[in-house]
Write a structure and sequence with these properties.
The complex is a heterotrimer. Chain B is an alpha/beta fold. Chain B contains 14 helices and 17 strands. In chain B, the strands form three sheets. In chain B, strands 1, 2, 3, 4, 5, 15, 16 and 17 form an eight-stranded mixed sheet that branches. In chain C, the strands form three sheets. A nine-stranded antiparallel sheet of chain C has the order 20-19-18-17-25-24-23-22-21. In chain C, strands 1, 2, 3, 4, 5, 14, 15 and 16 form an eight-stranded mixed sheet that branches. Classes of the chains: A alpha/beta, B alpha/beta, C alpha+beta. Chain A: Keywords: Hydrolase, Signal.
Chain lengths: ~425, ~500, ~525
């Protein structure tokens, strides 16, 4: 039995990794929380190269596997941040270190990932907090360009890219709510119309029926969106704006729409569920949108979406202070659970669901065979701020948590303080 | 133009309602204070005392006339005591936020001068700030309203209790020590200002120098006043001119007014402590103290406390070395350490900030809770009144539906002075009545609109008076433009301290 | 005689001061056959008011008409109630825009926002606003500057049309204070708490200055103290010899002011904000005189489906604000009413009518604009009532005054009659060019051209007389009547010239009046706007 399993394993590994000897790691002793399935006490996770090969309670462990004993710890898939600008900003008050917001209204051809600083000091801090993948978005303007799903480790931004383009981003003009003549929306409409025309002309040219249209980087970049190959992520805050945006998107007949919105999105929950539009809820730690609303209005938004049957992920504001503290993403989800959201849904809202919504559901978001081995071992429930994260693996490789500047400074000054005390 | 008369459910508290019926309101002026029962007994709770007694399981907490009377097993309570079955619940002291701008009207900063020691937060307490109610819902019972950090010597602070509904003067926590805000580093040297007219200083050494200079002036000022003779001789001699700015600084160097100084970097904190030592007084606390862990022993030796963001970092150059382990390291070095919010939204979940002190640096859970209760109370000089659960102290406490540091827990009740200012059940009642009132008023307003559009004469008369608003309000700052209905002061913050997205 | 003067004025080129040509005329009037509300709650159902040289000589059912009086009758049709005469209203708070003090105009050591020594002078006379007030029936007003923290002295004036010199009753009433103003940019103070600190420091400086001066007098053999210009002007208010009038921005500001000025020497009055009802208990503990605006908000805009975005707080205030005056009085807080904060002073009637509907006693409402401010201003013996010996400041109105849209026909200030016409919706479109003849009695006729442009609800126009084109200050169309006013300064005089024209198709007939006298007008339309376009 064992031999047979092993030979199968080796065969599988050879198929995957070519002739090089398989690099197998066995994580044992921990309670495994696959997210996609029930927790497994004293479970085993086998990692081969960068992928999870098997997950179970009594898995056979290959002889040549590196066995890592995680007794007393809990294994979770890395958190997937659904909306952030990690890597695009370092110190928000130092303009030279900030690449979050481009000028101009129409920036369809921008690609967020190309200016991700893979050595940003912010990345190891996020990783040490269990955020191992993040959806990095462009900012500024109306049509903002495309985003990418990244692993938060790599020797260049190219190595970090897990999936791109993940979405085309549109900041829906808030002035368009209640104003049919909104200039910003008119500009968006016109741009989309021009893009449709340009691509039709391009297609005709390809068929030899017409001359090629003049090159246009912006219009060309909208092609995948118009063809339905890339979803449109609409950013809208406030129920009036959200509803206007949804009406507009319906009229435009986009095939795939993702809505990124504040807590007011709860008031559109029924419609979103009916239309099958997934939602990125931009944070739980927010003031109620209106002064006269209940104090927990923003806290209960996630549960309202869940109850209505909306597929959603929990994010944060994604900018400013929240970039440096992307590590606090799980606590947003935990607090939503304090206010009604079932705990398992809270966990999914920062792991599996963002992966699925953002087209990476087959790669990340749960501990399942075939997925990237991006997971961490923690002392307990990772939605609890008291919990400590002990070890991290990204794509099968253990991450050196001492790359986290905070841990380094802690170690250095703790030693200094202890020496002083002596 | 005929207007219907709505039977007003609001503003109709002729007699105080019984505790069970008491319902708050979203407007302080319309929120009657909750009754103060002669006695309250909370039964069978897990009580986090924030004292040497630690965490007591399955005990009772007895309150009499607004003060804690006893904590222990199976306490006898008067027959008329309000009984609260708290089995499975946790009780902690009310949270004390030692750094807040959540209820300041008309600007958090008087940013004009290098010293604005004459301005007083006491003059501008926003008793109507919805933050007071919202933070009660997060278990906060007292906050320190601080001037912003635009100037080396800022304004005088005001500590308030969260007595939602009371006018400003009744919010003031009279037991608190007088204090004043100082600021060091990037803000007073104006690093991040869009500044056409830079003022002195532009360097950290300039900040240090100007403070020293102002201390000297204040000392001279005090001497001049003290040397002015009493009685007849005094009347015949021209008295020194009063100067509220120097007078407040003189109180500082005479130890009558505590310094709570915004500071990030180790060097600037050391520099201020050394000046204070020259003038023979102690810096009461540093605020934010991001690099405090680098000089824990020096802070402890001076006697300075530390009031800290636990995990804010990287938002400014001087915040690049901020680490979550800071409070734990300083606490271990013997520094009186607490956590603060500096943000009206964060203030609603300070328990989770405390939980992070367990995550970063391994403080035990009870000590972590003390970071938001007992220790900040001590920093503000109110430790003998609040911040702990012990007999004789004010009955400022919180009932949680679970472990108070757990992300899954929620505040059920918050008591201040033995009055239940927040109660989930009362809040639910309020939601229902507000929804009904809103619907009723909307209907009235719609009826009135229809009426006036039928009546052109009335319409012509009714030019908007809002344009003729007599006030000349200037800045309205909001860090979240999509929020609606808020008064500017409720979203105000120290614009020199935190750079927001918007 | 006056008509001659008017002609003279029309010959603008001469431009001589009118006063030099003024001749004494008997200034005695009898308003007969009117209902007289002599004071709140006191009515003479039918009687006369006799005015001599600007002063009320007699009032009563049986007051006899002096032989030298010009008799003003108010003929009424059968079944109509007689016209009603009320005392002129008193505006207790008329903030006047001062030019901002220039930086270099501020003496060293003094803050630009601290101007306790400022007072309104003849050159600050707000002609237009005074005219508006008068038209609305206000015959006396307390004016003060509206910028700065310490804003200076108030000036009590009547609202006649001849400038401050003629109208002034007192040039030093009250010291006006507010915490509302800020310095520009990064100058002190740029926050509310800074403004409070500056006012506090200034008041203590003023007290110190008095002490220092006294010490210096007793003992001159010492270093002279610095002298802070203007602060001596604070002394009367600090000593309670004149009120300190604080303009409050909102409820919290009122509480702040009450704490800032504790009970003691200072005679505090507060210009309110309209939401006093929100904390009446706190205000009733120390009933400080309030000058109350009637700035009731409009009903909020409600978009279908967006009700959530209409704030409950705003709805509540909209609903409750009209009760504010009644509830303040119920709480025992002395109250006056100001038209400040309304888009036009005449709105005060509609607002008072609403307040009355919402519980304000009508007599108290009238008192709040007559006897109460009179008492506060020390004018009990001179204004606020119709009583012999008082200034002849009167309103003549058809029916009750405190109604939504009272038909005021005349306002008398210091015995000078100002004829108004109540406005009705336009019933004609007088746009075009009118060739008019101004009939100046014995002086003959003068030709004039009146050009009117725009819609009847928003017209502009020009009057040309003998080659002199004068833009109209204001043109209003009421029913079939056009009412236009022209700045008298255009014709070398002072005050306002008004013209009333009744339009009948292409013909017009009417009258005019000015500070110089009355005249007739007649003429016809020579061109309509379309015609002009065709040309």
């Amino acid at each position: 039995m064992i031999t047979e399993a092993r030979s199968l394993l080796i065969l599988f590994a050879l198929l995957l990794a070519g002739p090089a000897p398989a690099d197998i790691t066995a994580l044992v002793g921990a309670t495994v929380h696959p997210v996609s399935a029930e927790a497994i006490e004293n479970g085993v996770v086998l990692i081969e190269d960068e992928r999870i090969q098997a997950v179970g309670a009594d898995l056979p462990i290959p002889d040549d596997a590196e066995v890592i004993d995680l007794a007393g710890l809990h294994l979770y898939p890395g958190f997937v941040h659904p909306a952030t600008q990690l890597g695009l900003t370092e110190i928000s008050s130092v303009p030279g270190s900030v690449d979050t917001d481009e000028m101009g209204s129409i920036n369809a051809a921008l690609r967020a990932e190309v200016s991700v600083n893979h050595d940003s000091a912010l990345l190891p801090v996020a990783v040490a907090g269990g955020v191992l993948n993040a959806h990095i978005m462009p900012g500024g303007g109306l049509i903002r360009g495309t985003s990418a799903m990244l692993r938060l480790d790599g020797w260049s931004w190219e190595e970090m890219v897990l999936q791109t383009p993940t979405a085309m981003h549109l900041a829906f003009p808030s002035g368009a709510a209640g104003d049919e003549d909104n200039e910003d929306l008119a500009l968006i409409d016109e741009t989309l119309e021009k893009a449709r025309h340009w691509h039709a002309a391009e297609a005709a040219a390809a068929r030899g029926e017409a001359p090629r249209p003049a090159r246009n980087d912006q219009l060309e970049a909208l092609g995948p969106l118009l063809a339905g190959e890339v979803p449109l992520m609409i950013h809208a805050n406030g129920i009036a704006v959200i509803e206007t945006a949804l009406d507009w998107a319906e009229a435009q007949q986009f095939k795939r729409v993702i809505l990124s919105a504040n807590a007011d999105v709860q008031y559109a929950a029924e419609r979103l569920a009916a239309d099958g539009i997934p939602v990125i809820l931009r944070g739980v730690y927010n003031m109620p949108v209106r002064r006269w609303e209940a104090y927990d209005m923003a806290y209960v938004a996630a549960d309202r979406l869940h109850q209505a049957g909306v597929l959603f992920a929990i994010g944060d504001s994604g900018g400013g202070m929240d970039v440096a503290n992307a590590r606090n993403l799980p606590f947003h989800a935990g607090s939503a659970a304090a206010h009604g959201l079932p705990k398992d849904a809270a966990l999914k809202s920062v792991t599996l669901w963002p992966a699925e919504i953002l087209g990476a559901g087959d790669q990340i978001g749960s501990i399942e065979p075939g997925k990237q081995a991006s997971l961490f071992a923690a002392t307990g429930d990772p939605l609890e701020p008291m919990t400590k994260i002990r070890r991290v693996w990204i794509d099968g490789a253990e991450y050196d948590l001492m790359r986290d500047r905070h841990r380094r400074l802690y170690q250095r000054y703790r030693q200094h303080q202890q020496a002083e005390a002596r | 133009m005929k207007r219907l008369t709505l039977a007003l459910a609001i503003a109709a508290f002729v007699t105080l309602p019984a505790l069970a019926d008491w319902t708050p309101d979203i407007e302080a002026w319309n929120s009657a204070p909750p009754p103060q029962p002669g006695a309250v007994v909370v039964r069978g709770a897990t009580v986090w005392t924030a004292t040497g007694a630690g965490i007591l399981e399955n005990v009772d907490l007895l309150v009499r006339d607004g003060r804690i009377a006893a904590i222990g097993e199976s306490l006898d309570a008067p027959a008329n005591a309000v009984e609260i079955d708290a089995a499975g619940m946790h009780v902690t002291p009310g949270i004390i936020d030692a750094h807040s701008h959540a209820a300041i009207i008309g600007g958090v900063n008087e940013s004009s001068r290098i010293s604005t020691a004459d301005v007083r937060i006491r003059d501008v307490i926003d008793a109507e700030s919805i933050n007071i109610y919202r933070q009660l819902a997060g278990g906060v019972t007292a906050i320190n309203l601080l001037h912003g950090s635009a100037n080396a010597i800022g304004g005088q602070m005001a500590v308030i209790k969260m007595r939602w509904g009371a006018p400003p003067e009744e919010l003031v926590f009279d037991a608190a020590r007088p204090g004043i805000k100082f600021a060091l580093g990037e803000n007073p040297k104006q690093s991040n200002w869009n500044n056409d007219t830079p003022r002195y200083p532009q360097t950290r050494q300039g900040v240090e120098q100007i403070i020293r200079e102002l201390f000297q002036q204040a000392a001279d000022y005090r001497s001049a006043h003290e040397n002015h003779p009493e009685g007849r001789a005094g009347r015949d001699q021209v008295p020194p001119r009063p100067d509220h700015r120097l007078a407040a600084v003189a109180e500082v160097i005479y130890g009558e007014r505590d310094v709570h100084s915004h500071a990030y970097r180790a060097d600037e904190m050391l520099a201020l402590m050394r000046i204070a030592e020259q003038f023979d007084f102690t810096i009461r606390t540093f605020q934010h103290v991001l690099e405090g862990y680098k000089i824990g022993p020096q802070l402890a030796a001076h006697g300075a406390g530390a009031s800290v963001f636990i995990d804010w970092w990287a938002f400014k150059q001087e915040a690049i070395d901020a680490i979550g382990y800071n409070p734990a390291l300083m606490h271990q070095a013997g520094v009186l350490t607490g956590l603060h919010s500096d943000n009206p939204e964060l203030a609603r979940r300070m328990n989770l900030e405390a939980a992070k002190a367990v995550r970063y640096g391994d403080l035990d859970e009870h000590t972590a809770l003390q970071l938001i209760t007992a220790f900040p109370a001590d920093q503000l000089g109110v430790g003998a009144r609040t911040g702990r659960l012990a007999p004789e102290l004010d009955a400022d406490f919180v009932l949680w539906n679970g472990h108070p540091l757990s992300v899954y827990s929620r505040v059920e009740q918050t008591w201040v002075d033995g009055r239940r200012y927040f109660d989930r059940a009362a809040d639910e009642r309020m939601r229902e009545s507000l929804a009904a009132e809103h619907a009723e008023l909307i209907a009235l307003a719609q009826a009135s609109e229809d009426e006036s559009s039928d009546d052109e004469q009335g319409n012509a008369e009714s030019e908007t008076d809002s344009d003729a608003d007599p006030g000349k309000r200037r800045r309205t700052m909001s860090f979240a433009s999509h929020l609606t209905g808020y008064r500017a002061s409720e979203l105000d913050h120290d614009e020199y301290c935190i750079l927001h997205d918007h | 005689m006056r008509i001659a003067l008017f002609l003279f004025a029309l010959l603008a080129a001469l431009n001589l001061p009118a006063a030099e040509l003024r001749q004494p005329t008997p200034d005695v009037h009898a308003l007969v056959g009117v209902r007289i509300v002599t004071a709140p709650g006191q009515v003479i159902e039918s009687g006369s008011v006799i005015v001599r040289d600007g002063i009320i000589e007699a009032v009563g059912a049986d007051a006899s008409v002096p032989p030298d009086a010009r008799v003003h009758e108010f003929p009424r049709e059968d079944g109509q109630d007689p016209m009603v005469v009320y005392p002129g209203l008193i505006e207790p708070y008329l903030p006047i825009e001062f030019p901002e003090p220039e930086d270099d105009a501020v003496p060293p050591g003094r803050h630009a926002l601290v101007q306790p020594d400022r007072r309104i002078t003849a050159s600050d006379w707000p002609e237009e606003r005074i005219g508006e007030l008068r038209q609305a029936g206000f015959t006396t007003a307390l004016m003060a500057g509206d910028i700065g923290l310490l804003r200076g002295h108030g000036v009590i004036t009547n609202t006649g049309d001849a400038g401050l010199g003629v109208n002034r009753l007192s040039s030093q009433f009250g010291q006006f204070v507010s915490f509302a103003d800020r310095a520009e940019g990064r100058s002190f103070p740029n926050s509310l708490m800074g403004a409070v600190a500056l006012v506090r420091q200034t008041m203590d400086d003023a007290r110190w200055q008095a002490q220092a001066r006294a010490a210096m007098q007793r003992n001159p053999a010492q270093s002279r103290p610095e002298w802070l210009e203007g602060l001596d002007d604070l002394r009367p208010a600090l000593a309670g010899e004149t009120p300190m009038v604080f303009e409050s921005q909102d409820l919290l500001d009122t509480l702040r002011i009450l704490e800032f000025i504790p009970p003691g020497d200072i005679d505090l009055a507060i210009v309110g904000h309209g939401a006093e009802y929100q904390r009446l208990d706190a205000l009733a503990e120390r009933p400080v005189r309030h000058i109350l605006p009637l700035n009731f908000p409009e009903a909020p805009d409600i978009e279908q489906g967006q009700e959530r975005d209409v704030s409950l707080e705003a709805l509540r205030h909209w609903h409750q604000a009209p009760e504010n005056p009644a509830r303040i009085l119920e709480a025992g807080i002395p109250m006056m009413v100001t038209s400040h904060g309304l888009s036009a002073p005449g709105q005060v009637y509609a607002r008072l009518a609403v307040a009355i509907e919402r519980g304000l006693d009508p007599d108290a409402a009238l008192a709040a604009v007559t006897t109460e401010p009179a008492r506060w201003l020390g004018l009990e013996d001179r204004a606020g009532r119709i009583r012999p010996g008082m200034m002849a400041n009167l309103i003549v109105v058809e029916g009750d005054l405190l109604t939504e849209n009272p038909a005021i026909t005349e306002v008398w200030v210091d015995g000078q009659r100002h004829v108004l016409a109540s406005l009705e919706p336009p019933a004609v479109d007088p746009a075009g060019t009118w060739d008019l003849v101004l009939g100046l009695g014995g002086m003959g006729d003068v030709e004039a051209t009146l050009a009117l442009e725009g819609a009847p609800t928003s017209m502009t126009g020009t009057l040309s007389v003998m080659g002199n084109d004068s833009p109209l200050n204001e043109v209003r169309v009421s029913g079939e009547r056009v009412i236009a006013t022209i700045d008298g300064g255009r014709f070398g005089g002072s005050g306002t010239i008004s013209i009333r024209l009744d339009i009948d198709g292409e013909r017009a007939r009417g009258s005019g009046s000015g500070p110089f006298g009355e005249f007739s007008v007649r003429g016809q339309r020579s061109a309509r706007p379309d015609d002009e376009e065709a040309i």
